[in-house]
Amino acid sequence: MRRGIRRLVLGAGAVAAGSFAAALLGGGPASAAPAPSGPVVGTAPPGLLADAAHGIDPAVPRNGVWPRIGYLPSLVPPDSPLQIPTPVVTHDRAGTTDVRVFPYLPPWLHNGIVSRFPPDTAFEIAGAIHLAVPGTSGRVEINPNGHCLFVGGGRSQQYLPRGFRRTVESPVRAEVPLPGDGGFTVTIDPRVFRRG
C-alpha cells in the first residue's frame, strides 16, 4: 500500500486539459463569470468541511447519495452521464466568490460500470478540482468535488462490505499556476480493494 500525496506542478500547456476536466466535473473557465447576486445560491448539504473547499472534502458521500437527503436535484436531464446539482455559491467580505458543486454519476451509469467488476473487487475514487480566477470585481473560486464507490458482485454501493482490503492507494495532486492570483489544482485519490 502506498501512502502520501504525489504533487505535480504543471506548466501552462496543461491548462487546456485541466479546463476540459473542470468543465466535465461541472466547473471551468466558462463558469468563471460573475456569480449570481445574493449571499447563497443553492443549499450546502450538511457535514461539509469549510477548510476542505480547495481539496477533497471527506464529507462528500459516495455516489451522490447524501444522508437524510438522497440525491441532490440535478440541473441536467436524467439521461446525462454526469448529474450536476445546483452549485452552492457564497460571497465573503474580501470579495471572493466561492462556487462549490457536487457532481455524481446517475444510477443507470453507475450500475452499468459495476456490472463489469469482478465479484471480489471494489474501486473507490474521490476527486476535487479547484480553479481560482482573479477578476476585476473580486476573486472567483470554483470547486467541484465528487466521490464514487464501485463494488463488484451486486453488493451495497454506499459502503465497502466487510472482508475487503485495500491494495492500492496513491493520491495525486496536480497544480497549474495561473497569471495573477489564480491557480488550478486537481486532487485525485483512487483506491482498489480486493476480498480476502
TrEMBL record:
Residues 1-32 form the signal peptide. This is Uncharacterized protein. Keywords: Signal. InterPro entries: TAT_signal (IPR006311).
